[in-house]
Write a structure and sequence with these properties.
It is built from 6 helices and no strands. By secondary structure, it is mostly helical.
Length: about 140
């Protein structure tokens, strides 16, 4: 099973739920994977086994995001500690804040690029269903 970092933003949650099933979910003999092994969103947008494979490759390119989330958490904790210390200069605080903002920006760019790659794999009808799901507009979830 591939790893996906979940975040508070809904599209990443849908991604974590959806795109990255283990490689056996897409059987070699059928055009669509076994429904019992597939998360809800994949079933809803009716992915082919080729699409599932393409999404697994996209997920692999997302793996460098994991250490960025860890760095971001660490930097936030460090800022919290610095803020409690009245001896810390404003310059030090701003440097740590800028580090946090740069990490957020890197993560955001990577997630956006991943989302664009996913859209390139989906058919127009699937994009609509995926985006509705991601944006929480799918009442059936």
């Amino acid at each position: 099973m591939l790893i996906v970092v979940a975040s508070s933003l809904s599209y990443t949650n849908a991604l974590a739920e959806s795109t990255f099933v283990n490689s056996q979910a897409a059987t070699e003999n059928s055009e669509t994977p076994n429904p019992q092994e597939i998360p809800e969103i994949i079933q809803k947008i009716n992915l082919t086994s080729r699409q599932v494979e393409a999404l697994q490759i996209i997920n692999e390119t997302r793996e460098p995001i994991i250490p960025l989330y860890e760095e971001l958490d660490k930097a936030r904790q460090e800022l919290d500690v610095l803020l409690l210390n009245p001896e810390v200069s404003e310059t030090q605080l701003r440097e740590k804040f800028n580090e946090i903002e740069e990490l957020r920006s890197q993560i955001s760019r990577m997630r956006f690029e991943s989302r664009m790659a996913i859209r390139n794999v989906l058919e127009p009808e699937q994009i609509i269903l995926f985006e509705r799901y991601v944006q929480g507009l799918d009442e059936s979830r």
